[in-house]
Design goal:
By secondary structure, the chain is an all-alpha fold. The protein is about 65% helix and about 0% strand. It has a domain of about 120 residues.
């Protein structure tokens, strides 16, 4: 294909992607932007061919802006004008801008695919290209995306090794920036366990177990795989100690788990492990299930991984609440509450918003009462979810 046709087609696909996004067709938007960047990535690097450089910059900008919007983290990228990628204008001033890193754009597209459930084409086209990058910053971002993709697919057997390698990649990226005001994660010894870190600490394993179980893997199988994963990477004893702590908590009796889940003076992680024990037991009472359900929702903002696996968590709790409704004696005012709970569980796709709704519907059916603070935290989850929708 002649180069002039490549830049024209790349721009047209990018403009189409932006238009699809504006109409709410996210799947077509992502597909169009992937094709736009696939074409733009074949153009010669450098600024000698200003049209090629311009195409990469404007197409990359549209993708980066959309990534910023979907990520919900804010940023300083301005919304592109409709039709900007296929305009005939070619401003000379664009030469002052730095080259767009192709691997970074591909990584943004992979994240968009995952966040919007729009397939895996970007990963298939450029996974190896991103993996081979020598940029410490992109390698750091890619290591986090790898964990996210593993949680989405349920392929979490190698999670401990991924977390250790991600921490090392982030430390290497921080070294490039030379920022003295570094978070604690950056000061870890190589292979160290950042227990309380929301990204690479214990909460990643909570999300990992939810992902594994929702994809049909057993707790025992998953724990054995995590131990095997540690064999392949250098690490201090804290990692094995944590895996043993996790295994012990999930192997404890339902009564012990319920007692620890109710104890708000204990450690956060012990409370969460106890909640996980209850959620996965398939024998819990309505009171214990409500306790575990509310405790998990209350901790949802502690880690991006807990939020990412919220739909899988919802699958588990809806199944458990349907099980509980099979025994009317477990619930208060069963003639009223059982139909309401069943409708809430069966209505709509699993999501964080649905998990919150099920808990609210189940509230009159149990004697356990939530504090006003806990209610506010849980209700805020759906507000955050709606504000993140585009």
């Amino acid at each position: 294909m002649p180069e002039h046709e490549i830049w024209f087609r790349a721009g047209a696909y990018a403009d189409a992607g932006f238009a699809w996004w504006k109409t709410g067709n996210f799947e077509k938007a992502v597909a169009s932007l992937i094709e736009a960047w696939r074409l733009a990535d074949t153009l010669a690097l450098g600024k000698e061919d200003l049209r090629a450089f311009h195409t990469r910059k404007v197409v990359g900008h549209v993708i980066a802006w959309l990534h910023q919007v979907v990520g919900g983290d804010g940023g300083d990228l301005t919304e592109p004008n409709a039709g900007i990628c296929s305009t005939a204008e070619l401003p000379e001033k664009i030469r002052e801008l730095p080259e767009t890193e192709p691997e970074a754009v591909w990584l943004f597209l992979m994240r968009l695919e995952r966040e919007l459930n729009a397939g895996t084409r970007a990963s298939e086209l450029a996974g190896k290209q991103v993996e081979a990058t020598t940029s410490p910053i992109i390698r750091s971002m890619a290591s986090v995306e790898l964990i996210a993709q593993s949680l989405r697919s349920g392929h979490v057997s190698n999670l401990p090794k991924q977390l250790i390698e991600s921490a090392l990649a982030m430390q290497a990226a921080a070294g490039e920036v030379r920022d003295r005001d570094l978070p604690a994660i950056m000061k870890l010894a190589p292979g160290g366990f950042a227990r309380s870190d929301g990204l690479i600490g214990t909460s990643a394993f909570l999300a990992g177990m939810i992902s594994a179980v929702s994809h049909g893997r057993s707790v025992l199988e998953t724990i054995q795989a995590w131990r095997a994963s540690l064999d392949g990477v250098s690490h201090p004893p804290e990692w094995e100690e944590w895996i043993t702590e996790l295994e012990t908590a999930l192997d404890s009796s339902l009564g012990e788990a319920a007692a620890r889940a109710r104890d708000h003076t204990g450690s956060w992680i012990q409370g969460m492990l106890s909640a996980l024990n209850i959620l996965l037991s398939k024998r819990s009472s309505s009171e214990d299930l409500f306790l575990a359900h509310s405790r998990w929702l209350g901790a949802m903002n502690a880690s991006p991984w807990l939020r990412q696996t919220a739909g899988m968590f919802c699958q588990i709790v809806q199944s458990e609440w349907l099980r509980v409704t099979d025994t009317p004696a477990l619930l208060r005012q069963p003639s009223l509450n059982i139909p309401a709970i069943q409708i809430a569980c069966r209505d709509g796709m699993p999501s964080l918003e649905k998990a919150v709704h099920i808990l609210e519907v189940a509230m009159p059916a149990v004697s356990t009462r939530l504090s006003d603070e806990m209610k506010a935290i849980i209700r805020s989850l759906t507000k955050n979810e709606k504000s993140a929708d585009v």
